[in-house]
Design goal:
single chain, alpha+beta, Alpha-Beta Plaits, 2 domains, 4-stranded antiparallel sheet, 4 helices, 4 strands, globular, Mercuric ion binding protein, metal ion binding, signal
Length: 105
């Protein structure tokens, strides 16, 4: 096994045409999935634990990539894949957790 690894590395460093497609294929990355953002007003947040609950509820929605909750502003900023979910589904998840969310704008 070590011998194969040494040969493969040697061929790669020498620019072996046989290994070039493999190196290119491994370095290619798929196009990033499309992303959308939504901002929400969040009702009923009264303590420091409320944002944790809102973040967890919104984060469980399939397609949600990140959630940032601002307790002082009573708001949330969500990045999601619009092919998998939408703002209404994210707001519904927050509402089910006891924190009604209204899209801004």
């Amino acid at each position: 096994m070590k011998r194969f690894a040494i040969l493969a590395l040697s061929a790669l460093s020498l620019g072996s045409p046989a290994l070039a497609p493999m190196a290119i294929a491994q370095s290619a990355t798929p196009v990033a999935a499309s992303q959308a953002t939504a901002d929400f007003y969040i009702a009923n947040m009264t303590c420091a634990l409320c944002p944790v609950t809102v973040k967890a509820a919104m984060g469980k929605v399939k397609g949600v990539k990140s959630v940032k909750v601002d307790f002082a502003a009573r708001s949330a900023h969500v990045v999601y894949d619009p092919r998998q979910t939408n703002a209404a589904a994210i707001a519904a998840a927050s509402k089910e957790a006891g924190y009604p969310a209204t899209p801004k704008g």
